[in-house]
Each structure stands twice: as C-alpha cells, then as structure tokens.
Design a protein that fits this description.
The structure is a single chain. This protein is of the alpha/beta class. It has a single domain, classed as UDP-N-acetylmuramoyl-L-alanine:D-glutamate ligase (3-Layer(aba) Sandwich), CATH 3.40.1190. The protein has eleven helices and 14 strands. α4 links the parallel β8 and β9. α8 runs antiparallel to α9. The longest helix is centred in the C-terminal third of the chain and has 16 residues. It is globular, with a radius of gyration of 19 Å. One of its GO terms (biological process) is lactose metabolic process.
C-alpha cells in the first residue's frame, strides 16, 4: 500500500492574465482551483496511474474540507488529522511572467504532530510512505528524523521530497529514495549553487550517507538518477511552460508508479521526465494523456559507478 503525507497542504489558485501591473485592477482571463500540496499531488498522479493510495496530513477549515472532498471524488482514500485554523491558499499567476505567492499555513499544535507520528507508527510493514513538502508553523524540523526512525523500525519504504537541510539527519535511517531539486541539493550542503559535476558529487554524498536512491530534478534540463551501482541522466521534453509548481511532484510520482509496475530504471525515468514536462505545460497536474508522445523526446545517458569514479 502507498501512503502520502502532506504536512502543509494547500488549495492552489491558478490564474492567467494578459498583464499583471501594480496600482491597478488586474482582471483574470482564466482561473482554476486545485487541491494541492506536494504529497497530495503525488496521490493524484498515482491515482491516475491506477494505484490505490491513501493521503495523510493536516486539514482545517473550509479549505481543508474542499481538499478532502476533491481527493475522495477522485477515488483517493484520506486519513487526515483535523486541526484548528484554515488550510492555506497559494496563488500562481501566469501573465508575461510566472508569479508564485505561497502562504505559510496554519500553526500545528504539538498534540496534533504527535497524532501524525502515531498514524505513521500504525502503517503496515512494507508500506511505501511519501513525505513531501514544507512544514507548517509550529512543527519542529526534527519531525523528519522522527518519521525516518519510525519508517526504519517498521520496514516502511520512505520517500523524502523535502527542502530542509534536516534531510541529512534522515539519511542514516536509509530512506528508500530522496528527491531534491538542484537548488535544494546545494542548500543541503550550504552552497549557493552546483554545476553538473557538483550535482553528481553531492548526490553521491547523499548515497554515501545512507540514501538508497537519489533522484535530482533539474527543471527544463531533466533529471539525474543515482544509486550505488549507476548514474542515469535524462533530458526533459521541450514545450510551452505554463506552470512549474507541480512538475517535480509528477516526476516523483510517475517514477515510483512505473517502478512499482515493474518498469526498468530507464523506462521509468523516461516516463517520469515526460510526466513532469507534461505538468509544466499544463495549468495544473498532467492528466498523462500526452506522456507517451513527449517521452519520444527524452534522451538518456547511463554510466556505471566505476565509470563515474573514473570521470
């Protein structure tokens, strides 16, 4: 069974405008509301790929009710903890440029954080747990390590897509997969940025510290997959970018889904790259209908670990 955990979910409001100017009324051409949050996005994509999964996290207020309803309407099981306060709304504006307005979210009480840990402790052994996204106010970043410890004790396959440098504290618990983007990977090690060689080097350091697999999303340049045995670099299809907010979530979910279906690493990575691009070309999450066509654009280069060490 697959579970996703979104500690700070949101409703995302996507709006399109001809222009976006200060000190004037900016009228939208199109708008769309979507239940969101990184783990929730993973749930939606897995659901579209035919995988039953359960979405977990914290929800509050009328916005929380909307998210829960949208998940259940899609056929996704939910197991959220109700909280005081109102689940946040984020705004993504597409005009001449792309603008992202992300709210901090409601404060989570310590008692509710403990309830979440108890839910994770109750997950069946051998389950897959995807923990994605930022922390809401009131939650200490040590919760990531607590989750990793529980996952190790319970033989849960833990997937981490978090921006906090506290990810490094989780690595001794040998998470199944970690998925930073290139900026997050640099931040984990206190660096302003990384070139291609640096991404390879720091990605391998995550493996050396305990991660079983690393998948680094590189935006329009594609992604890099690393394991102790291999390094696989895949490109991304090119097209008209509408929204980059959810593409990394689509990449992660589709990679996991295709691997669970039994795909080879290369087949899973090319599909995932196409799914991530398809989402970037859409107002929200991809419906995956164009993935096979986009997949034809993806190029792959594979290196064994011995080749990586020699290069």
């Amino acid at each position: 069974m697959i579970y996703t955990c979104t500690l700070n979910p949101a409703i995302d409001l996507f709006v399109s405008m001809e222009t976006f100017r200060p000190h004037t009324v900016n009228r939208t051409v199109e708008e769309d509301y979507q239940a969101n949050g990184k783990g929730i996005n993973v749930s939606f994509i897995l659901n579209r790929m035919g995988f039953n999964n359960t979405a977990m996290g914290f929800l509050g207020g009328f916005t929380g009710e909307y998210i829960d309803q949208q998940l259940q309407l899609a056929g996704i099981a939910t197991n959220f903890i109700p909280i005081d306060g109102i689940t946040r709304i984020n705004i993504f504006i597409n005009a001449e440029e792309e603008y992202k307005i992300v709210n901090k979210g409601p404060t989570i009480a310590k008692a509710d954080a403990e309830k979440m840990l108890d839910k994770i402790r109750s997950l069946p052994k051998k389950a897959t747990l995807v923990v994605s996204g930022s922390l809401p106010p009131g939650m200490d970043e040590s919760i990531y390590e607590q989750i990793a410890s529980i996952a190790r004790q319970r033989s849960i396959r833990l997937v981490l897509d978090i921006s906090s440098p506290r990810l490094l504290d989780c690595l001794p618990y040998q998470p199944y997969l970690v998925k930073p983007n290139e900026d997050e990977l640099a931040q984990f090690f206190g660096l302003p940025s990384l070139n291609e060689a640096g991404i390879q080097e720091k990605g391998r350091e995550l493996l050396e510290r305990g991660a079983q697999q690393v998948l680094v999303s590189l935006g329009e340049r594609g992604s890099l997959y690393l394991s102790p045995e291999t390094s696989i670099r895949v490109t991304s299809p090119q097209g008209n970018v509408v929204n980059t907010a959810c593409s990394g979530d689509a990449l992660l979910a589709s990679f996991l889904g295709r691997r669970m279906k039994g795909d080879s690493l290369i087949d899973a990575l090319t599909y995932a790259s196409a799914a991530g691009a398809s989402t970037a070309f859409s107002k929200g999450l991809s419906d995956l209908s164009d993935v096979e066509n986009l997949r034809q654009q993806v190029q792959v280069s594979v290196h064994s670990q011995s080749e990586v060490k020699l290069s």
